[in-house]
Amino acid sequence: MQYNDTTNKNGIIQLAEDYTDLGDGYISGNSTMLKKFTAYANEVSDDIWSVIWSSAGSWQWDDSNQADLPQATTDIVSGRAKYTIPPDILTIKRVEIKNENGGWTKLKPFTREKTATSIGELETRLGCPTHYFVFNDTIQLYPTPSYDLTGGLKVFFDRAGVSFSPSDTTKSPGIASPFHELYPLGMAIKWLSIKQPTNSSLLLYKEKYKEKLEAIKEYYARRWEDNAPPVITTTSENFE
Fold first, then answer.
1. CA dihedral defined by 219, 222, 226, 230, rounded to 10 degrees?
2. Distance CA 200, CA 192 (A)
C-alpha cells in the first residue's frame, strides 16, 4: 500500500480520510493536515516496531525500506577505549572486534557492578579487546585496544522503522503487506481520540487495531517456524 495515492485513491492517506470521514483530499490536499497525519503514521510505526521486536525472538527484523544492513563499522584507534554508537541504534545485538592478524572475534558484554577488579585498573590495560560495556551512546572496550586498524570494530543492532515524510507518495510501509492497514487505522484512532472522542466508530477501530497488532505479532513470531534459531539469553560475564 502506497503512502499517498491521489490517483487511485487507495493509499494510506486516502484510507485515513475514509476512516476519519474527513473526505477526499481533506488530508492529502492540506499541507498542515498532511504533516499532522504523517506524524501519526510515524507513531503507528513505533507501535508496530515494538510489537515485532517483542515477538521476533532471536530472528532479527528490519524495515524493508532500509538501504543497508543493520550493522555499523568503525576504525580501532590505539589507546582509545570509547566509541560513539550511531544515533539510529535502539538495541545492540552483537559486537565484534578484528585482531591485528585480521581475524574477527565476538566480544562479551561486561557489567561493571559484578567485576572484582577495579574499574581504574581495567581502563589502564592494553591489548586486544575481549569485552564491551554500553552506556548511553557509547561503547567502551576492555582492555583498551593496543593497535590501530581500519574498520576493526563492528556493531550489529536493531533500529526503528524508516519514517514517513509528508512529501512521500509511492513509499510503502516496511512490513508485510497484509498488515499495511494498521497505518490508516492507527492514524484514524489518534485523530478521532483527540477531535471526536465520542465517535461511534472509534471503539470498533480500536478493536480492529488491537486484533491486527496481535496478528502481526504472531506472524513475525512464526515467520521462521520451520527453522527457528534458538532463543539465546545474553548474560553479562565478569572481566577477570
1. 150
2. 10
Q: What is the pLDDT of residue 232?
A: 35
8 Å CB contact between 100 and 227: no
Q: Is the dihedral of CA 110, 114, 116, 121 positive or negative?
A: positive
Q: What is the pLDDT of residue 240?
A: 38
Q: Which of 159, 182, 200 is the last residue of a domain?
A: 159
Same-domain pairing of 21 and 48 = yes
Question: Please, what's the b/e burial string for 15-31 (b: 16 or more CB within 10 A of its CB; e: otherwise)?
Answer: bbbebbebeeebbbeee
- CA pair distance 221, 228, nearest whole angstrom: 9
Taking the complete model, does pTM exceed 0.85, yes or no?
Answer: no
| Same domain membership, residue 184 and residue 151 | no
Domain that holds residue 33: 12-62+172-227
Residue 39 vs residues 15, 67, 240: alpha-carbon distances, Å:
16, 22, 48
Q: Identify whether residues 33 and 90 lie together within a single domain.
A: no
User: Quick check: is 196 in a domain?
Assistant: yes
- Segments of the chain with pLDDT less than 70: 55-64, 68, 112-119, 223-240
Q: How many Cβ atoms are within 10 Å of 198's Cβ, its own excluded?
A: 6
The continuous run of DSSP H or E covering 94 comes out as strand 89-98
The answer to the question of residue 2 being in a domain is: no
For residue 181, count other CB atoms closer than 10 A to its CB: 17
At 239 the pLDDT is 35
